[in-house]
Design brief:
Elements (H helix, E strand, L loop, with lengths): L5 H22 L7 H13 L8 H18 L4 H4 L6 E3 L2 E3 L24 H13 L6 H4 L3
Antiparallel strand pairs: 1-2
Helix pairs in contact: 1-2, 1-3
Protein name: Complex 1 LYR protein
Organism: Nitzschia inconspicua
């Protein structure tokens, strides 16, 4: 089997850039940008033949510039905006937190931590490190008694 030719690699690169631009055009808000016009611009930019003064590298550089512009103006999807968080429940109700700290009506910090809810993976890692560092037991601290 022969190695892929330069034209195959170039074709793959062109398709990749076209797909990237297509995904960004698809996410453009319809209120501001006409979807049909955006798609027509994308198609004509890729399908028009190269002129005598224009090279393929220049055309791909223009596509990269257009992609960076579209990335700036395209709103992020909702799944990227939602992040995990920390929730504290008290008496069966979720308490809201402000600036990362949950406080009750008296201003005291409310936490789920009570010393009984250790992360099992953290405990296992802790014990592994104790064994690795030579802390087998605490007989040395007890003395002879």
């Amino acid at each position: 089997m022969s190695p892929p030719s330069a034209t195959t690699a170039t074709t793959t690169l062109i398709r990749q850039k076209y797909r990237q631009l297509g995904r960004l055009v698809q996410k453009l808000p319809e209120a501001k940008y006409d979807p049909q016009q955006s798609w027509d611009e994308l198609r004509t930019a890729f399908k028009t033949p190269l002129t005598e003064t224009e090279t393929l590298e220049q055309r791909l550089a223009k596509a990269d510039e257009r992609r960076s512009f579209l990335q700036m103006i395209t709103p992020k999807s909702a799944s990227q905006d939602t992040k995990g968080g920390k929730w504290v429940y008290k008496n069966g109700q979720r308490l809201e937190h402000v600036n990362g700290t949950v406080r009750d009506s008296n201003g005291r910090v409310v936490s789920n931590w009570d010393g009984k809810n250790l992360d099992p993976d953290s405990v296992k890692r802790h014990n592994h490190h104790l064994k690795r560092l030579g802390f087998r037991n605490n007989a040395h601290a007890k003395g002879i008694f």
